[in-house]
Amino acid sequence: MNVSGFIFQALNGLSSASGLFFVAAGLSLIFGVTRIVNIAHGSLYMLGTYVAYSLATKIGGGFGFWGGIVITACLVGLLGAAIEFVLLRRIYRAPELFQLLATFALILIINDATLWLWGPEDLLGPRAPGMRDAIEIFGRRLPTYDLFLIVIAPVVLWILHLGLARTRFGRLVRAATQDREMVGALGVNQAMLFTAVFALGSFLAGLGGALQVAREPANLAMDLTVIGDAFVVVVVGGMGSITGAYLAAVIIAEVKALCIAIGTVSMFGMSLNFSKFTLVAEFLVMAAVLIARPYGLLGRPQGAVRGVADPEDPMRPATPALKFLGVVVLGALMAMPLMAQSSPYVLILGIDVMIAVLFAASLHFIMGPGGMHSFGHAAYFGLGAYGAALLVKWLAAPMGLALLAAPITALLGALLFGWFAVRLSGVYLAMLTLAFAQIVWAAVFQWEDLTGGSNGVIGVWPPAPFSNSSVYFILVLLLTVIGVLALRRILFAPFGYAMRAGRDSPLRAEAIGIDVKRVHWLGFAIAGLVCGVAGGLFAFAKGSISPETIGVGRSIDGLVMVLLGGIQTLTGPIVGASVFAVLQDTIMRQTEYWRALLGLIILLLVMAFPAGIVGGVINLLRRWRTAS
Amino acid sequence: MTDLSIRSLAKAFGGVRAVNDVSFEVARGEFLAMIGPNGAGKSTCFNMINGQLRPDSGEIWFERANLAGLAPREIWRLGVGRTFQVAATFGSMTVVENVQMALISHAGETYRLWKPAASRYRARALELLEQVGMKDAADRASRELAYGDVKRVELAMALANDPRLLLMDEPTAGMAPRERNALIALVKRLVVEKGISVLFTEHSMDVVFAHADRIIVLARGRLIADGDARTIREHPKVQEVYFGTGKTFARVEPKPLEPQP
Amino acid sequence: MTAPLLNVENLNASYGAAQILFDLSFEIGRGEVVALMGRNGAGKSTTMKAIMGLMARRGRTTFDGVDISRMRPYEIARRGLGFTPEDRRIFVDLTVMENLDIGRQPPRRFADGTAAPVWTPQRLFTLFPNLGEMPDRPGGGMSGGEQQMLTVARTLMGNPLLVLLDEPSEGVAPLIVEQMANTIVELKKEGLSILLSEQNMHFAELVSDRVYLLEKGQIRWNGTMKELAGNVEIQRNYLTV
Questions:
Q1: Beta strand C210-215 with C33-37: parallel, antiparallel or unpaired?
Q2: Which CATH code is given to the segment(s) C6-238?
Q3: Over residues B16-44, mean pLDDT
Q4: C83 touches chain A (CB under 8 A)
Q5: Are A206 and A76 in contact (CB under 8 A)?
Q6: Measured between beta carbons, which residues in chain B are less than 8 angstroms from residue C178?
Q7: ipTM of the complex
Q8: Domain map (residue ranges) of chain C
Q9: How many CB atoms lie within 10 A of CB B141?
Q10: What's this model's pTM, rounded to 2 decimal places?
Q11: How do residues B58-71 score in pLDDT, each as one tens digit?
Q12: Is residue B200 classed as helix, strand or coil in its secondary structure?
């Protein structure tokens, strides 16, 4: 590495920091005032790049490009306002988890809409008119446009800062960030303020996306990549702090640039390619910041959110009726291989459903009783699946060993990530877990030599007698039942109670000697372990595993399963996972745009059935009993 | 005999000295009230003793241990019970399960994964609930209780580790006057029976003057008075900072307002 | 007597499934200071939040001749109904001046055309000299008593016709309580009407004209302050032990 190379990479890093800053700043502003984490903010950024591409190519010339960027930002701002007006306005009082899910549904819908409008190909915009040149720095050429990006971010930061400090709108934003209800009681129309802030935040995302048009091609994966990075930036910078967002964006971009600049070095006779470690570096920065300042560099602890959901009823042991039902269901499942002669597909679907049940039950374990809303549970599924598959691929390990390795790999990952996650709560925890899952996904994707990259690992088939799907079905059934019952047993044991105690009232729990963080950390690890079993079973069920199957989508599927069934009951995730798996199977075969359809289902769920299926049934039964 | 000994405790927030060189002692079996006007440093002082805040300097001796800088759960393990200003229980558990949880933790069984918690120490929990008059509500969800009853359950939880010192932050806040006296009378009876020392903060002066053995007064981060009810009432410094001009609600003519524009 | 400034008919309010208020009916005339008294949990704060639209409520509430029972909080505030919450809810990041600015509304008139008192930061600083000494202090760096003053001043910046003042004496030192009492008397002289929620009999006696006594979400007694002050039995039944 030499100094000139490093400075060049540092400048490069600054220019890529600008786009990230715009998204993170918008995310932060919106969260501050509305208390909603708009997961779809990356989608607005992506739309910005696509719209700017169309304007720049259709209109063309200087106006098409520069004017197009401004028009794009305004259009995306308007779209943000419309989203707030039509959807979010209805769920401000809903539990945090539902708000996160609703904005996630938007990701699915926007992504499919973009696919429908622009098609699947990557689209690279024209170079910026008037800035096609490059300037020479230390013998390397840095595009003038990159210099422009380096300058524009601090300028926008400065304008935002002035606006917040000096204008009445800015004061209102700051006041509402602390106590929006009181601002309303003082005569300020909150609805207008929220819409305006959402429009401003979306404008920033749109601007960030549009400015990238001359730098990188528009593609359909941008939404999740950008939001994952933006979450890391916001966690590092501190939620609600715009200056923090800038600082964090720069730090992270610079650390990545440093890794690339270092390149391959030889140490102790080993050659190490640092440019492959950009994701690890990002993770380390975040870890360091979270240890030193749990609320980010310039953030502060968020006050308790007003109007959280009611606590659940005390847990009661299963009634005889429920036990009987359980035995009946189990009996029916055991008998399924007999019926499979006529329709073998039933068994495949059955295996899918049971793996989903195990996955959802392990997520519910930390989400419900633990109160930790993990948005990245796919990480442990993926670690389990890859743990098993790689053992088969590289060491030709037998299935038994591989299935043992799956939970152990997942457990190690959960111990590592969980240690950080339990230090946070609420939306911070959700963002951090999502970021971790993104890192696992990207590591699998980037580390081609080991994992096969995007091609994944193939040929992970179970040996005889498990190659017979009836036998494999019974194995999956056995492990699923053991897993679910074990989780249930733990919830009724002192440890499960301690986990709920730490969720219900951390202060009180600490005051009776419970180490809440440690209890939640171990809870996280147990959930990871069980989830790893599901991942291992999945790998052998499919015969192959690729990064796609462990993406963010799977994390969100898990959330939907848990919520669909109802988070406040122990049977909820089982019912939810079953319904979801069957539903997904049927929908996916119906339409190319199944993601959008799934998004609409989530929105419907959030708006109409906040207690989930099991919760809804219990409420109905209760009403029926009191009526009779 | 001294149970708790506070020596030169200090804490500053961003240059503001919230607690400044405060020293006092609580004798075994004593019922000591800490009072003071808003912003006097009561909460800061209290939170350093219970482990929520780390003191900048000073020592907090309880029996043979210095509590300064220990975590709340470590302090609890040394035999210090605690109730909160806003009563906190575990809403998703029944009343008796709340107390069982405290007993399970006291027995060091928090990390057991197998035996059902509902069967652990139920008899002992019911006994504690009986002492605070809540046995009949044992199997109700704790979140359904009236606020005064939540405070009683919290007291039962605080007693679960057989504490030798009880820290109570505004034990009667948010309660009706009749309930206030009943709760304090209950606390007093229990601590005398068990020989527990109590340090409590309180806004309600009738409670303080009726029940405290001794009162200490904080103002602007410093301890300005220490004595029985009578001494405190007549202490000139206390009168100045706390009780105002003495004649309650005497009319002081304010400056005339500017005319309306 | 002219029509009351605030007229509440059959007000009901609930938190989820738990009903807190049951068919409250009462009124406040222009220029009156009315005390809403009762023990903790009687429903005093809930009454104010329900009038302000800050929680689910039923019943008919008219204010200065306009039905406000279906309006949202900001619409009610814009009609000239000010609210000072019990827990103050100062914007801790904003300075004293900025806090006041958030409450700012244009001058207003009653329905009959008479002007309501108009407040500027300068006039408020005369009323609360402590605040005048620290215009640039962030709300978070103020003592409890100073915050209590700021929350009243912030509400007055909206030039209200009527202020709902929730427990101004709760949790502040006696010296501040005295100042608050003086302030209320002063505001009444300016022509402001006040609905005061209070547990402290001395305080209420000093400043209010009439009283409604609440118990378990219902009005159990009403009359003039003088009547209540002279009736020890009623005081014992609804206020003290």
A1: parallel
A2: 3.40.50.300
A3: 87
A4: yes
A5: yes
A6: 244-245, 248-250, 252
A7: 0.92
A8: 6-238
A9: 18
A10: 0.80
A11: 999 999 899 999 99
A12: strand
